[in-house]
Each structure stands twice: as structure tokens, then as C-alpha cells.
Amino acid sequence: MRVKGLIVAIGLMLSSGMASAQVMQVDESEQTISGVKRRGQQLTVQLDPKFVEKHWKDHLSKEAGKAKHSKGVYTVEGAEIHSISKSPMRISSTVGSHGAGSFVWWSLDMGVTYIDKSATPAEYAAAGRFMEDFARKLYREDVLLQINQAEDVLRATKQEQDRVVKQANDLQLSIQKNQKRKLELEAELVRNAEELKQLEQNVELNVKQQEASRQQVQAMERAVEEVRDRLKEIK
């Protein structure tokens, strides 16, 4: 029952994870970076911010170039993301959380201008798709993590089930041994009772034998006395 319940829980968890994977939003927003207010894009997801930041750092370094981190800001110089721009860019990014969930914000400097929804719509749309692809990757990683955790719990549950089954078998074996021992003890009690009865009979017989022996001794003593008396009569 525990394993069946766990499978149901895993199914519900995966359904919930797949549903929440649709909860992603990319908006144009401003952030203050090193005292300067900048306009950029912000992705909102409903995941733990530490989880998001770890994967964003790895993803950004893999897709754009080595990201430097200082005072909560990730920076990539000469970033090349050809799906967004053919020209190298300077990326400034930060990760945090707000009431709607966790967010990843970035600003993309193409040298002559920043990517902007109205000024550079094509690049802005491409950057939005980049963020959405990252969000889908995040949710997949989150579901895989949950699956791994669920499998760990499942293994532990199966081990517990095996332990309980073994315990049940051991208990049944103990019961069988106890029942066998009980029969042996009952048989031994019967033998003891028979032996006691025989001993009591032997005691009764011994008493009779003692009496018979005593009478024989007395008879022999009288016979000896009679012989002695006869001896005295001879002169």
C-alpha cells in the first residue's frame, strides 16, 4: 500500500510539475545595476531562486561565454548568442525573487544600443525566446530532480517493505519453532509422567520386597536360633 501510494504521489507530482512548467513570463523591466538603472528583460518562474541561479550561471556560461560574478551581478563580455544577435554583446544579469516567484533579469548591450522592445523588436523577441527556452530547461531539470528524489524514496520504501516481509517470515519461522518445541515439551511431559508413574510403582514394589526380605531375615534368624538350641541339647 505504501508503494502504491508513493506511485500515485509521484504521478500527481509530475502532473503538477508539467502544469507549472507553463508558468513562465518574460517582461520588459528595469533594474539598478551598480547604481545605474538599466532596461532589460525579466523572466519569472515559480521555482526556488537558488535552484534558478545555479542553473542560470551554468546556462549563461555555456551559451554566451564565461560569466563573472560580483555583488550579485553576472557579467559576460563579448557574449556571442547568434540566435539573438550576430554581433558580440555585453550581458549584465541578476537573479532574485519577488511576490510572483523567482526572476532572472538581463540587459543586453549590443555596443550602439541596448536590446529594447520598441527599438530592436527582432532581437528583443529572440532574447525572449532564449529566456523561455531556459525556463523550459529549468522546469525539466526540476521535474528530473523530483523524479530522482521520488526514486530514492521508492528504493527506501522497497527496502523497508523487504525488511517487513523478512520480519514476517522470521516471525512465522519462530512461531513454527515454538510450536515444534511445545509439542516436544508436551511429549517430554508425557514421558516424565509415565516415568514418574513407573518410579512410584517401583517404590511400591520395593516396599513389598523390603517387607518380604525382612520376613525372610526373621525366618532365617529363627531357624538359626533353633539350630543353636539343638546344638545346646547335644551333650
Protein architecture, described:
The protein has 3 helices and 6 strands, in the order αββαββββα. The chain has helices spanning 2-20, 49-63, 121-233; strands at residues 24-33, 36-45, 68-70, 73-79, 89-98, 101-109. It has a 6-stranded antiparallel beta sheet with strand order 1-2-6-5-4-3.
Number of strands: 6
Helix residue percentage = 55-70%
Class by SSE composition: alpha+beta
Tally of DSSP helical segments: 3
Shape assignment:
rod-shaped
Residue windows where pLDDT falls under 50 for at least 5 positions? 17-21
Strand content: 15-25%
* Element-level helix/strand string: HEEHEEEEH
What's the N-to-C terminus distance? 115 Å
- Rg from alpha-carbon coordinates: 49 Å
Strand order of the largest sheet: 1-2-6-5-4-3
Biggest sheet: strands, sense, closure? 6 strands, antiparallel
Mean pLDDT: 87
SSE layout:
Blueprint: H1 2-20, E1 24-33, E2 36-45, H2 49-63, E3 68-70, E4 73-79, E5 89-98, E6 101-109, H3 121-233
Antiparallel strand pairs: 1-2, 2-6, 3-4, 4-5, 5-6
Helix pairs in contact: 1-3
Short description:
By secondary structure, this protein is of the alpha+beta class.
Distinctive features:
63% helix, single chain, 235 residues, six-stranded antiparallel beta sheet
